[in-house]
């Protein structure tokens, strides 16, 4: 299943990253341009000098930059990593509506951007007799076939997981976290304890109360291909658990 790419992309070369949301890139004509980076994470091993990027041009006088980064060449130069993290919600919507994820195939979408408790959740779902709050997380960091989330400390992500666990334990709502792998070289996803131990602990503590699911996608110049469900693996008391 393919989500077509919006607009035409242009090949460029990564030069540097002045801050979290801006990179400098060199176009094929040699021009250096300021580019908006939708993913504020560390993007370790991805944004390296000389690495190929694909950019989208925006003819909008109200934007601070005319370009946005869409794809980055993967570390092994055999594929891409998607940089449009906000597109993860659109991929989640497409996958749920088309029942691509076996763990979620009984659920349907009621509403997007649903506020409950202290947070606004990406989706409100229902399965005929129950409702669930679903939060989407984008995974771009991978090592040797394992995807890790987050790639930088995320207090917001920790808060979300803790609140979802509380909701699942104290209300009639079910809680779901969906990790979307924005690269196709991953075979599983793990919480990145070496980067954010607080998030890893929160997710591990919640795994008996919260449904935690992974989804593999393949970003290409033509679009985003939704592939299949991925296992999310936890280390608990010296053993490994899979959800």
Can you tell me about this structure?
The chain has 243 residues and is mainly beta. The chain folds into two domains: 2-82, OB fold (Dihydrolipoamide Acetyltransferase, E2P), CATH 2.40.50; 85-242, 3-Layer(aba) Sandwich (Trna Endonuclease, Chain: A, domain 1), CATH 3.40.1350.60. It is built from three helices and 18 strands. The chain has helices spanning 88-97, 155-170, 197-206, and strands at residues 2-4, 9-19, 22-27, 32-36, 52-57, 67-73, 80-82, 108-116, 119-126, 131-139, 141-143, 146-149, 174-181, 188-191, 211-219, 223-230, 233-236, 239-242. The strands form four sheets. Strands 1-16-15-13-10-9-8 form a seven-stranded mixed sheet. It has a five-stranded mixed β-barrel with strand order 2-3-4-6-5. A hairpin with a 6-residue loop joins β6 and β7. α2 (155-170) packs parallel to α3. The protein is globular, with a radius of gyration of 18 Å.
How is the topology of this model organized?
Layout: E1 2-4, E2 9-19, E3 22-27, E4 32-36, E5 52-57, E6 67-73, E7 80-82, H1 88-97, E8 108-116, E9 119-126, E10 131-139, E11 141-143, E12 146-149, H2 155-170, E13 174-181, E14 188-191, H3 197-206, E15 211-219, E16 223-230, E17 233-236, E18 239-242
Parallel strand pairs: 4-6, 10-13, 12-14, 13-15
Antiparallel strand pairs: 1-16, 2-3, 2-5, 3-4, 5-6, 6-7, 8-9, 9-10, 11-12, 15-16, 17-18
Helix pairs in contact: 2-3
């Amino acid at each position: 299943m393919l989500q077509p790419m919006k607009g035409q992309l242009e090949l460029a070369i990564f030069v540097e990253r002045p801050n979290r949301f801006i990179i400098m890139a060199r176009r094929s004509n040699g021009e250096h341009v300021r580019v908006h980076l939708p993913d504020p994470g560390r993007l370790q091993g991805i944004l390296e000098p000389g690495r190929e990027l694909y950019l989208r041009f925006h003819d909008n006088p109200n934007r601070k930059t005319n370009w946005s980064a869409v794809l980055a060449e993967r570390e092994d130069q055999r594929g891409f990593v998607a940089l449009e993290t906000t597109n993860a919600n659109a991929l989640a919507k497409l996958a749920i509506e088309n029942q691509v994820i076996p763990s979620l195939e009984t659920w349907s979408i009621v509403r997007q951007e649903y506020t409950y408790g202290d947070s606004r959740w990406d989706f409100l779902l229902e399965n005929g007799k129950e409702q669930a709050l679903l939060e989407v997380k984008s995974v771009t960091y991978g090592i040797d076939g394992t995807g890790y989330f987050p790639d930088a400390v995320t207090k917001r992500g920790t808060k979300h997981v803790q609140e979802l666990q509380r909701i699942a334990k104290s209300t009639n709502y079910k809680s779901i976290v969906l990790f979307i792998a924005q690269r196709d070289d991953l075979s599983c996803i793990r919480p990145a304890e070496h980067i954010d131990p607080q998030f890893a602990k929160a997710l591990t503590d919640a795994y008996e109360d919260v449904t935690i699911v992974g989804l593999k996608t393949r970003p290409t110049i033509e679009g985003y291909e939704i592939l299949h469900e991925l296992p999310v693996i936890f280390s608990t008391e010296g053993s490994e658990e899979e959800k």
